[in-house]
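User: two proteins, same treatment. go.

Assistant:
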Amino acid sequence: MTIRHVVTWKLAAEDAAARAEQAAEVARRLNALDGVVPQLLSISAGANAAYPETNWDVTLVADFASVADIDAYQVHPAHEEAAGYIRSVVASRVAVDFEV
């Protein structure tokens, strides 16, 4: 069993260019966790590429062997550093964890 962790953020900046820059930075910081956080089986994060007036700004898709591995990822120092930046620019967050 693999657990897919999907998180999407709406960023707080009202300016579309600022949101796009911040979304790219969020994606960069999350993708940099590949090979750093041992519990990650795979990770892909990206900034929205279309319909910025209606779509959310950035999404993460990451695979883990178990919910316990997601818990360990959440408290890993590298993830906590990325999450600190994300919290500083985010307005809303939604997440789903499902079996694949």
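Protein 2:
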Amino acid sequence: MPQTSENLIQTERLEALRTIVVQVLELGPDELTETSHFVNDHDADSLLALEILARIELDLGVSIPQEELPEMVTLTAVYDVVARNAGWEIPNA
């Protein structure tokens, strides 16, 4: 089944977020899954969470209220928060 342009855009956005999280958490690209928990699986702390938030704002130009930071515990959750604040379509929504 061929991907639509919207699916390709979602994939590119997810990969951009993955790159940010992998760099901030200093992980190998294959260590981060869409559902691995940043704290439980990768020993992230609140400072790293703030760094992820700052990198998203800087690299992608998306402003995210700090109150939403506790939701951002997996790559999928990060995508959902960023999508909501950027007006992106959320997959399967």
